Each structure stands twice: as structure tokens, then as C-alpha cells.
Amino acid sequence: MKKNDLPEEKKSGRSILKSGIVLSIMTFASRIMGLIREMTKASFLGTGFYSDCFSVAFLIPNLLRKLFAEGSVTVAFIPTFKSYLEKGDDPENRKNTQEFINSTATLVSFLTACIVVTGILITPLLMPIFCKKPIDTGAANYLEQVQYWMAQKQEITYLTRIMFPYLFFISIAALFQGILNGCKIFAPSGFTPVLFNGAVVLGTYLLAPHTENPARAMAIGVVSGGFIQAIFQWPFIRKTGWHARLISLKKTFTNPGTRKVIALVIPTIIGMAAYQLNDAVSTAMATRAGEGIASSLSFSLRLQELILGIFAVTIGTVILPDMSGLAANEKWDDFNKMLIQAMKIMIVISIPVTAWSLVTGREIITLVYKNNMFDDKSVELTLGEFRFHIAGLVFIALNRIIGPAFYAQKNSKLPTLAGIISFGANILLVFALTGPFGGNGIAAALSIASLVNTVFLFIFMKKLGTMQTRRIIISNLVYTLKIVVMSVIAAIPCWFLRPVLLNAFAGHGRLISAGAPLAILAVLFAVIGVLELIITKDEIVMVIRKKL
User: Fold this and answer.
1) Distance separating alpha carbons of residues 434 and 297, to the nearest angstrom
2) Each residue's pLDDT tens digit, 4-58
């Protein structure tokens, strides 16, 4: 049988595997650089005043990035772009497709430029949300509290204004990524985060001695990294035969494809705004809960995203174009098989990683962050939050897979509604848990809210009529229970061996005292886990083996 004569399902499977491997390598490299970036931040800023200020300042442009860059491209641009490509390669369709790209590029550039200028101007008005004004209760240290509050407002405002242009550059980069991904080219976009993180690290080391504090050096690195992400992808766009040029606003807003993108984006932005406001509310509550909590939450989340991103982002990015194609051709059986398989891949990765991280969390944080400004107090603060964050890993991973299943069918309203419900749950839990549990309560609230989001995405599947909801739920629930049991079995020997290893390697630098036990426990856990999967003839392992 010739390669081109393979059944569509096998060709699709090979496409996912091949693209997934390439993107996984790129994503792994970017996560390693992201880890180095966070280690740089921990070393220069710790969990003190400037670290809190940087975490809050980066939150605002980063939140808008998720709304206008990632959200718009995933939900609206790629499915619409794919629908143009599905119509064929005749001159008339190519002309229409190019006009659509130009219109979208103009729309993104115009809107984000307006938001950046407005954001820079109104930043001081946002500070009362994040900076709690001291109340005069006659306390002896009231004057110190006032001085701290004023310095905090001033520094966060300054850092936010430096980083706001990042939104413009990263939105253009996201559009370029959408074009490349729509053409099933994943490597260049997968590599750009490596360049971004490298720019932040290099900027911090080079500029820290010449700026008032290291946080400002990191902020300049963020903006430089966003610019590099955009410009790096341009040559690859040209190789596809497409380009992105600015046209008049009149042509932009009358283009049918762009109008479709706007129609898809508006409800999505509302839902994602609600979801992303979780971060804003959590950060605001963290800054009010005490010094170091906002930055320690940031360090904890970065660890979770490091673990999550390598696989969840990869699978979610790769399957969206293929699922969009299957949906366009109404191949619903293949669509559901792809969704179930992708979800099981997330389960077999995220649950064991969660179990291992709960056992070795302290050593992970010590190895990654403990240096200079990041001391034992910072480790302890971050550890408690990390345990609650990592508990929600599987739900966040599943959301990254289920969401594209809705977007592939050009339905953004139902995941939007699920996001709003999740947001409401998170807000209530943050207010309820922050007081008694501090940062741990904020982390727990996010994990529970992610579970709520997953539950409602399953509920809303029934409304589409194209997704085999009962089959998807039962198949994945049984598989989840199996992987939980296997993960616990693999974790028990690690739990008992951990103190023995820590004592054996104690008294050396953190690379040995924390790194050596981590490496040994990782190998032990992995060996037990892989043996369990082979002995039980796990279906995902068999599928991967067959495709390889």
C-alpha cells in the first residue's frame, strides 16, 4: 500500500504524531528557557517587594494577550482560515484568502495599538485594585505602611507602562502563528517562546546593573522578547506564499471573513475575560494578603505551566486544524475518536505527573528556584501553593483539549459560558478561602474552578449533537480511575524512599542535595509506571507503539 493510499484515520494519526513530536521538541525547549527565566527572576527578585511589583505589572498586558492574541487566533482565526483553504487553490479563492489575512492583520494591529495607548494612560487608575491603601488605626508602623503603599503604586505603574507594548507585538506574533498553524507548520511558532524567554533572561543580566532595580531590566526584556517573537516568524510566512499587509479600516470591517472572526471573537472574549479575570482577582487578593504571596503564586503557577505546557499546549495546538477539517467534512466518528484519544493522552500524562509532584514538591522548588534572594521562607511559601495548583493539573489539561473540540465546530458560546461559570466559582472561592488559608486558598480556588469548568464543558457537549458525550465521559472516567490507581502504586515506593535519599545527599549544594534525589525518584516512578502500562496493555501505549 502506498503512503497516499493509507486510510484517512491513519494519515491523520501520523499527521498528529509527526506534528506533535516536532512541536513537543520546540515546546520542551521553550519550557526549559521559561524555567531559566523564572530561575533568573527568583535569583534577582526572590519573593520580596520588587518581585510582587513585577508579578502584578506583567499580569495586565499578559491577561490582555490571552484575550486578544491566543484567544482570537485559537477560536476565530484558524477555523475561518481553514474554511478558506478547504475551498481549494484557485486564483479567486487565493485572492479572497489573502484579503482576509490582510483584513485580520489590520484589525489586530489597530485594536491592540489603541489598547496599548489607552492602557499606558490609565494604568495609575488601576492601582487601587492591586494596592491596598493603609487604614489609620493608630498603629505605630502606619507611616511605614503608607510609604510602602506609595512606593508599590509607583513601581507597579512604571513597570506596567514599560510592558504594555508587549501586547501589540505578541498579538502580531499570534496572528503569524495562526497562519503557519493553519498551513500545518508548527516548528517556527513553537520556537518563538525560546527566543522570548532568552530575551528576558539576557535583558535581565545585561540591564540589571544599569537600571534602578532588576524588575525594570526584566520588563524591558519582556517587550524585546515580544518583538522578536513577531519578527522571527515573518520569513516563514513568506515561504507559505501568504503575506500580511495593512489595508484601510473600511475594507477591514467589510471583509466577510473578518466579520466572521469578529462574530466569533466577541462572545469568546467575554467568556475568556471572565476566565482570565480569575488571575486579576487572585493577584489583587494576594497583594492584599501579604508580601510575597503574589510572587510565590506566580512562581508556583509557572511550575505548573512548565509541566502542563509541554504536552497540553502541544496536543491542543496540533489537533485544532485537524479537528476543524474533520468537522468541516462532517466526519464525526473520526472527530470523536481523535478527541477521546487526545483526552486519554492528557490523562496518562497529567495524573502521574501530579502524583510525583505531590511527593517531591519541596525538592522541585528548591532545585529550580532556591538561590540568592529566593530563600527557605520563599521555598515554604511557594510549596504550599504548588501542592494545591498541581492538584488541578488534569482538569486544566482536559480543558485545553475539550475547548478546541468546540472551536473546531465554530461554537465559541458554550465554552464561553463554561468559562463564566468557572470564573464565578473561582471568585467566590477566592474570597472564601484567602482569609483563612492565604495563598494556599487562592491556589485551591483555581484548581476547583478548573474542575467546575471541565464538568460544564462535558455537560455542554450534549447540546452540539455531534459529540458522543456518553461514550466520551464513560471511556475517559474509567481510564482516569485506572491511571489514578496506577499512579498511587508508583508513588508509594517514592514516598518511603524520599527521606532516605534526602539524608544520603544532605550537606551538598542544591544541585546534589535536591537534584540527585529528584532524579532517582523520577527514574523509579517512571519505571514502575511504564511497567504498569505495559503489563495492563494500556491502549494509549499500544496506539503510540503502533504508530511509531
Assistant:
1) 12
2) 454 444 444 455 556 556 666 777 777 788 888 989 999 999 888 899 899 889 9
- What does the alpha-carbon distance between residue 546 and residue 540 come to, in Å, rounded to a whole number? 10
Amino acid occupying residue 140: A
SS (H, E, C) 76-107: HHHHHHHHHHCCCCCHHHHHHHHHHHHHHHHH
With CA atoms as reference, report the closest residue to 413 among 544, 267, 543, 232. 267
CA dist 103 and 252 (Å) reads: 4
Q: In this predicted model, what pLDDT tens digit does every residue of 154-189 receive, in sequence order?
A: 999 999 999 999 999 999 999 998 899 888 888 888
The kind and range of the H/E element at 534 are helix 515-535
* DSSP letter for each residue of 246-303: ---HHHHHH-HHHHHHHHHHHHHHHHHHHHHHHHHHHHHHHHHH-TTHHHHHHHHHHH
SS3 assignment, position 472: helix
Residue 326 near residue 338, CB atoms below 8 Å: yes
Under a CB-based contact definition with an 8 Å cutoff, are residues 496 and 323 in contact?
Answer: no
The cell numbers describing 521, all together, are 525518584
Q: Cβ neighbours of residue 145 under 8 Å, at least 6 residues apart? A: 134, 139
326-361 burial, b for 16+ CB within 10 Å, e for fewer?
A: bbbeebbebbbbbbbbbbbbbbbbbbbbbbbbebbb
